[in-house]
Amino acid sequence: MSSNYLINSIYRATEGEGIHLGTPQVFVRFQGCAIGCINCDSMDTWDFSGQEMPLVDVWDKVWNESLEGSIKRVSITGGDPLHPKHEPRVLELVKHLKERGWYLNIEAAGTRVVDSIFDRIDFISFDFKTPSTGVKTRVENLVKLCKQYKGKFQIKSVIADERDFNASLDAYNQVITMLEDAQISIPWVLTPCYETHEEFPMERFELVQELNIRNGSIFRVIGQQHKWIHGAQKKQV
Ligand code: SF4
Questions:
Q1: What are the sequence ranges of the domains in the chain?
Q2: Distance CA 181, CA 108 (A)
Q3: 45 CB less than 6 Å from ligand 1?
Q4: What is the rounded distance in angstroms from the CA atom of residue 195 to the CA atom of residue 170?
């Protein structure tokens, strides 16, 4: 296998979703994902072919995009950066950046908890895939995350409708039961779905907020700010 990195893009932008909303960082977007979410807004990242780069070029690009280290923060995303094909390169990149004192976030699709990477990274954003994605997340993965990575993760669910909300609530309750810790607070974000062909889905946002309030205000509802600003189709923002 090539030791090159399969890269979709490397660019500087402001985090547009989740609890780090509004934070400037450099995104390293890996090319290739085999998960197949029906409502994926980055289908251009699915193919495992495209731009190949050695570590030295990835680092050069990160350095330039960071304005020569003035933003020492990287989000590793995709595609699916935790696909086994990417895993050795992601681990190498993580070690390279941590040796230089950078803050690292990873966007995990929820299919795998990869200890060798998660142990080294500063923050894990872990998906719980809802029914509208057509993909399932094992609740056991969420439990493992809560047990091993307390204080450095969020769980994120994309919510298209009430069924997605109910599935998230059900998973939350299963995790709480399996953890056997009634006091635990799980940082879980609901992201109202905003598809690329849509106008801003105001009614969906209102529905998700209302469902959350009526069901114990367990979650935080945080939209995708970059889509409000730049439109739902714009890339690298
Ligand atoms: S895991 Fe991410 S990139 Fe892969 S199909 Fe799902 S939303 Fe798209």
A1: 5-230
A2: 25
A3: yes
A4: 24
Residue recorded with tokens 């003035």: 70
CATH number given to 5-230: 3.20.20.70
Neighbours of 20 (CB within 10 A): 18
Report which protein residue has its CA nearest ligand 1's atom 6.
37
Tokens coding 225: 């700010």
Q: 111 CA to middle of ligand 1, Å? A: 11
Q: Whose CA is nearest to atom 1 of ligand 1?
A: 109
Structure tokens at 223: 């939209």
Q: Which helix (H) or strand (E) holds 168?
A: helix 162-179
| Distance (Å) from CA 81 to ligand 1 centroid | 10
Using DSSP, state whether 155 is helix, strand or coil.
Answer: strand
Strand 153-159 to strand 123-127: parallel, antiparallel, or no bridges (unpaired)?
parallel
- 39 CA to centre of ligand 1 in angstroms: 8
Cα 218 off chain centre by = 20
For ligand 1, the distance from its centroid to the CA atom of residue 35, given in whole angstroms, is 6
Q: Provide block-wise average pLDDT over 10 residues at a time, the chain (237 residues).
A: 86 96 97 94 92 96 98 97 97 98 98 97 98 96 96 97 98 94 88 88 96 97 88 81
